Amino acid sequence: MFQVPAWIRRHSFSWKISFTQKLMLIFLFVSLIPVTLVQLFNYYYTVKVMERKVKEYAGSSLTHTIRNLRTELSAYEDLVYQVAYDDSLIELLAQLNDKYDAATWNKLQLKLNILSYSKKWINSLVLITENGDSVISIDRTGQDINNHFWQSLGDLTGTTFYRKSIELYSRNVWEGTKFLGAYGDTLYYSFFLSRRIIDFNTNRPLGVVVLSIGEPLLTGIYADQKEEMRQDLNKTFIVDETGRIISHPVKKLIGGDVRDIFPPPVAKQLLRKEDLIELNSKIFGKGVIVDSAPISKTGWRVVNIIDRDHLFREIRLTKNLILLIQTFAMISLILIAISVSKRLTAAVKKIVQAMLKAENGDLSVRVETDTDDEISLIAKSFNTMIEKIRSLVEEVKRVTQKEKEAEIKKLEMQINPHFLYNTLDSINWMAIEKGELEISESLKQLANILRYSVNGSNQKVTLRQESEWLRDYLALQKCRFSDSFTYRIAIDPELMDCWIHKLLLQPFIENAIIHGLAGKTNGGILEITGKSFGADQMLLTIRDNGKGMNRAKILSVFEKRENGEAGIGITNALSRLELYYGANYRLHVKSPVNGGTIIRIIIPKDWEGRETDANRCG
Q1: What is the spatial distance between Cα 555 and Cα 109, in angstroms, rounded to a whole number?
Q2: Which residues of 206-218 are buried (b: 16+ CB within 10 A; e: fewer)?
Q3: Helix ranges (DSSP H) in 455-548
Q4: Which GO terms describe its cellular component (predicted)?
Q5: CATH superfamily of 457-616
Q6: Looking at residue 125, what DSSP letter applies?
Q7: What's the rounded Cα separation, in Å, for the pair 487 and 527?
Q8: Which of 267, 300, 443, 468 is an S-S bond match for 428, by CB 3.0 to 4.6 Å?
């Protein structure tokens, strides 16, 4: 408790005053100290808070910018993917690889011309064959600038994006911005997206598709139209992993190096492979805040510069106004406190006493006041709160009791799986005693299937274990459908010890039996194969000779799963693939009407039977 100095007590004849008066005197005495401290530290604190808020806003803005960039770039990735997996285009490209033919070349160019108009910022679309021939779409700039650019490169098989696409096999390759040329006062810049084209039916490499995209696509997302003319240092731009500027509102800086803008130590930190980098630095003698974050799958980073000096010049002006308002508020508070202290103290005591009773469990307590002010509102709110707490306590009691009853019912309804196993085993012996060996074998298979399915449905097993289970499963299905189909399981021996999530293939196989082979009374064929696909992936194929599906049916089964139109099994299988492998899996469905169905699933090889960082990375 605050102690009044002795010299005040000795020289004061009226110190024996009421508690309220003592409270007000002490409040007046110590009020000068907080006012002084506020005046001393307010500016420092305000600057720190504002700087933190600015960084938070900058980080949020940067995240939003990157999300928009990623969304826009994904649309162009989808276009390249469409080209790389277009069956008719692959067929034409294979013919051009085998033998150059003007008619084939013209057909390919026509396809590219059509595709080049599907996105606003496509400058041109190019196919480079394995033997060095190229097919170039129409020049979207309208000034023949793209054609001159491609001609200036000479042999396109020697370009960086071609070589990288070959090295990365069937992954997208992003190449930084290059200067295409100028027309009048307009400068044309493009960045590039390429991907190797492979005929997955024959695993034959056919060439590389290259997409030339106008650089204004990027600046249109992160920069306003007046940013180039701004006099402060606030800027946003994009660099690649080497520090080369690939997009900037000031076009003449494109192609330059970030080290020309920042001191070398700061530039080096900005290029670290981290999700978010925040730095304080100086540019041209001015303080700046710099944020940097990566654009996934591109190797690029967005750099955001905030002019700290320009920003806090306004804050310093605001500081003086805040100090003035604080001083006025303090004086007003003291005057008001003196006039209402007695009534305030009495009302507060009532509320405190009621709170103590409530703390001890008395929820029937209520606060009665004879005032009509803020304290009265607090008292009414307290009474309302206590009543709500009392109601909630009663509700919790009722809910808890219902949950206990529901849990008891749930436990009563549970069936021990071992009861099912033992029952099946008993029926099996009954079948053996009666000489029904075929039924006995089916019961064994059913018991194995049940045991395998129930125990740890989401755990991993080896392909050897999964294929053994599939044999039992298919044997029962074959029996169920009166031997209307035959099946074959062929897994490469080298993959038998690879790990896979249990029951991953079963929904696709069941779909093939029930829907693909529906209506066949004999002659049905179902084939499940597994083989290596590159060094780190494997290809699992499910093939049937059933009635196939048209495109609309394929889309309804394999894509429209969010609204529940697909079967539960397929929906769960697709969701599990995304959950387990993220962007590291591919699913390809080929199903011509009356031509059977082929489902190809490409997933990473897992030799350890556990989740690893490699399984999760893109």
Answers
A1: 29
A2: bbbbbbbbbbbbb
A3: 463-480, 506-511
A4: plasma membrane
A5: Histidine kinase-like ATPase, C-terminal domain (3.30.565.10)
A6: E
A7: 6
A8: 443
Q: At what angle do helices 87-98 and 102-116 cross, to 10 degrees?
A: 140
Q: Give pLDDT tens digits for 520-551.
A: 889 999 999 999 999 999 999 999 999 888 88
133, 123 Cβ separation under 8 angstroms: no
User: How many angstroms separate the Cα of 375 from the Cα of each of 312, 351, 382, 384, 529?
Assistant: 40, 9, 10, 14, 78
Rg of the Cα trace of the chain?
A: 37
Strand pairing of 134-136 and 122-129?
antiparallel
Secondary structure (3-state) at 194: strand
C-alpha span between 494 and 136 (Å, rounded): 43
Q: CA angle at residue 551 from 547 to 553, to 5 degrees?
A: 65
Token code pair at residue 350 = 């009532």
Same fold, 85-219 and 457-616: no
Please list the residues that pair with 544 across neighbouring strands.
526, 597
Query: Which residue, 95, 237, 244, 266, is CA-closest to 179?
Result: 244
Single out the residue of 165, 201, 212 nearest to residue 85, CA to CA.
201
Instruction: Collapse the DSSP code of 483 into the 3-class scheme (helix H, G, I; strand E, B; otherwise coil) and give the result.
Output: coil
Checking if the pLDDT of 227 tops 60, the result is no
Report the 10 Å Cβ neighbour count for 309. 13
Which run of H or E residues covers position 564? none
DSSP 276-301: -EEEEEEETTEEEEEEEEEETTTTEE
- Residue 44: exposure state from Cβ atoms within 10 A (0-12, 13-18, ≥19): exposed
Between CA 504 and CA 491 the distance in angstroms is: 15
End-to-end CA separation in angstroms for the chain? 63
What is the SS3 assignment for 617?
A: coil
Question: Is CATH 3.30.450.20 the classification given to domain 85-219?
Answer: yes
Query: Are the C-beta atoms of 86 and 70 separated by less than 8 Å?
Result: no
Other C-beta atoms within 10 Å of 473: how many? Answer: 23
Residue 504's nearest CA partner among 534, 530, 477, 532 is: 530
**Angle formed by the axes of helices 437-454 and 463-480, to 10°?**
130
CB of 215 within 8 A of CB of 140?
A: no
CA angle centred on 589, ends 584 and 595, rounded to 5°: 160
State both tokens at 21.
């008066």
Alpha-carbon gap, residue 187 to 181, rounded angstroms: 6
Across 138-147, b (16+ Cβ under 10 Å) vs e yields bbbbebebbe
Separation of alpha carbons 83 and 68, rounded Å: 24
Query: Per residue in 30-47, pLDDT tens?
Result: 665 666 666 667 667 777
Tokens of 454: 């129930």
Q: Is the pLDDT confidence value at 464 over 80?
A: yes
Rounded Cα–Cα distance for residues 202 and 167 (Å): 19
Note the pLDDT tens digit of each residue in 185-206: 788 898 999 999 998 888 888 8
Range name among 1-10, 84-93, 131-140, 229-238 with the lowest pLDDT average? 1-10
Q: Which two tokens stand for residue 514?
A: 């029930």
- Burial (Cβ within 10 Å: 0-12, 13-18, ≥19) of residue 77: middle
Task: Delimit the domains of the chain by residue range.
Answer: 85-219, 363-413, 416-455, 457-616
